[in-house]
Amino acid sequence: MIRLTGRARAHSNIALVKYWGKRDSDLFLPMTNSLSLTLDALYTDTSIVFDSELTEDTFTLDQIVQSKEQTEKLTHFLDIIRAKAQITSKANVTSLNFVPTAAGLASSASAYAALIGACADALGWEDDHKSLSKLARRGSGSATRSLFGGFVEWDKGTDDSTSVAIPIDDGQWDIGLIVLVLNNGKKKISSRDGMAHTVATSPFYENWVKTVPSDIKQMKAAIYRKDIEMIGEIAEHNALKMHATMLSANPPFWYFEPATLLAMERIRELRQAGYPAYFTMDAGPNVKIICQKSDMTAIMDELSHFYTNDQMITSAAGPDMRTLTEEEWAESLAKKEGSNEYSH
Ligand code: DP6
């Protein structure tokens, strides 16, 4: 009997220059580079046991055993890992999402980054985050970037071995992000389907691909200068350009809800009131506010007229993916069991 156990923690990330579209959907090679900020407030802890006696993979998420259908994607991902490690053992995977309140913010980014970290730990692989980012990519594109903390670029690369994450800056300065939870339901169109449909049908998509390299270049210059206004302006424009490709898809679709537009207006008002505060949105209605960490309390105060405390999640830049000791894993389990502040 062979039993191999590993555990890891990875943090979620929010793209400031978005990934929207694949050029190879099997290898998850993106059309463009993208650049994100890893968040310390949102993360996933995962434990894996490869066990030669198991007959199938199992997946337990936030203490709920997932169905066979829900485990399919995981098995597909583990097959890639098994082939690389030249093993055949099935695995028990247990994941805990640490997302304050039922925010619907559980992300595939932290999920696959934590899973690859746990696999590497179990299989005794060398701790090379760049190499691991390539494998995380095969689970979900945005997971590529969650191997590293701070600001991270995902280089689209030329092939499987060069499409990797590159850390840009640790983000340990006066930058923060507030997630505004406007609707915590499951999204109607997954980002995977949404981007494929956009690539296939939007006449504007080509222009998106053309403009991203300059956004990346300028964003890197802005990060280097720690220039929050420039970071925010580029991020807002980039997000709106991405959403415009969806509006121009055929048939069109959008993730915005009335509350999304209202929040965007309110962030513009914050700006008029003197706060450097900017918005970005992903494949869902929630709005993320990019701002100075030192302004977060005052901004929350301003927004408290419109939103409850539970709807505003503040975060600073988060750290790299890291393995967890047995004790740390036990602590996470206890935290999950003992707390109703966190839920999935
Ligand atoms: C809008 O990484 O969820 O959040 O690669 O198909 O799993 P798959 O898609 P996913 O897409 C994320 C899209 C985005 C922008 C971003 O995170 O860069």
UniProtKB/TrEMBL annotation:
Transmembrane segments: none
Enzyme Commission number(s) from the entry: 4.1.1.33
Mvd1 C-terminal domain boundaries: 178-323
GO BP term, example: isopentenyl diphosphate biosynthetic process, mevalonate pathway
EC top class named in words: lyase
PANTHER family xref list: DIPHOSPHOMEVALONATE DECARBOXYLASE
Family: Belongs to the diphosphomevalonate decarboxylase family.
Name the UniProt record assigns to this protein: diphosphomevalonate decarboxylase
Species the sequence originates in: Bavariicoccus seileri
Lineage: Bacteria, Bacillati, Bacillota, Bacilli, Lactobacillales
